[in-house]
Amino acid sequence: MRAIYFDKVIPKFLLVKALRGIWPGVVWSPLSPTRLDKFAEAPLPGDRWVRVKNRTCGICATDLSILFANAAPSIGLAALPGIDRVFLGHEVVSEVVEVGPGVTRFKSGERVIMDLRFGGPHCLSQEITPLCAACERGDMSLCENQSARKGLQGEGGGWGDGYIAHESELFLCPDDISDDQAALVEPMSIAIHAVLRSPPGMKDHVLVIGAGIIGLLTVQAVRVVSPDCTITVMAKYPHQEEMARQCGADDILDPSEGYAGVARRFGIDHYTAPLNKGMLLGGFDMIFDCVGKANTIEDSLRWTRAEGSVVVVGINFEPMKLDLSPVWHQEVNLIGSVNHGCDTWFGERRHTYDWVIQLLREGKFRADGLITHRFPFEEYRKAIDIATSKASSASIKVVFEYQ
């Protein structure tokens, strides 16, 4: 079994971080904590474990952040004693090839979608009882026993031939969902979970910052949850602008427009001062920041009206310095959203994947056109180059295909 994985070796991580600007190939060198390797087919580690072979897997920005060491050991997440080895690839649809004697949810030959395995263990996968409060309500991303390091572990991930997982880390893929749709269920769930964290009002003016795959899917999710709202998207490239409109955007904000562009849209003043990028009084009712860098979060807080909300969907894994004063003097709500879990909509609480699959069946979530490039796994370096060169490649979602 082939797999690309990252070992949590801080000296190597820092070395790649220091050298990647002058030597991009360092990420594939022996100096890197990330490598492609072959593993012998190990037996299932427990009765409730499952072996799968992969069919299709997307390349996600989180995978790329790990690969290129775009993170800092000083962030809060890095303090948790989680898994020492991370297998890359989680937007993956696979086929079950072996089940343990205690598995009740799956059988050989069925297709499955990875469910939170990449985010680390939780009470169910570690078979901890009683469940923590988060796992009890179905929010395994927020598990309080995530770093308990109990139970068994599997091998492999989406960037490789297959993997071994606890049955609680998998979700059954319905027969009427295609492989392309199934590979996008996980990022779609991130989008719908973020929007349901703070649903826009029916007449709200919403800004989505970033028009990569998560931004585009967030546009679709906003349009589904609040059909009559006005959606503006801040898009960096022409192909993103075009796709944003196809996904439901009413307007495009070019990053160069900045504060003046937002002020002009709402007929409000852009107040400037020495050593200050400025401030608006008024603006968007809600902003979904799918980039999550210091400048985009800071701008979001200043572009949101008093008592409006900013939802942080994407994140930069580096410590950030930014002005949080609008949270205080404008009472702007700053909300985080991570992964997916169970979400309540129309008074019903269901797994986020269930909501996504329903929306796919109803034609309210579109997958067509979002997968722009496909590569066999053997061309993984080329695939990653395309995924990281959006300006020249016009890529949106790049996937590995194993069939």
Q: What this model shows, in words?
A:
By secondary structure, the protein is α/β, with parallel strands linked by helices. It folds into 2 domains: 2-173 and 370-401, Medium-chain alcohol dehydrogenases, catalytic domain (Quinone Oxidoreductase, Chain A, domain 1, Alpha-Beta Complex), CATH 3.90.180.10; 189-336, Rossmann fold. 28% of the residues lie in helices and 26% in strands. It has 13 helices and 20 strands. Strands 3, 5, 6, 7, 8, 19 and 20 form a 7-stranded mixed β-sheet that branches. A 6-stranded parallel β-sheet has the order 11-10-9-14-15-16, sandwiched between helices. Strand 12 and strand 13 form a beta hairpin. Helix 5 crosses helix 6 (213-225) and helix 5 packs across helix 11. It is globular and about 65 Å long. The protein starts with a strand and ends with a strand. The model has no long low-confidence stretch (mean pLDDT 95).
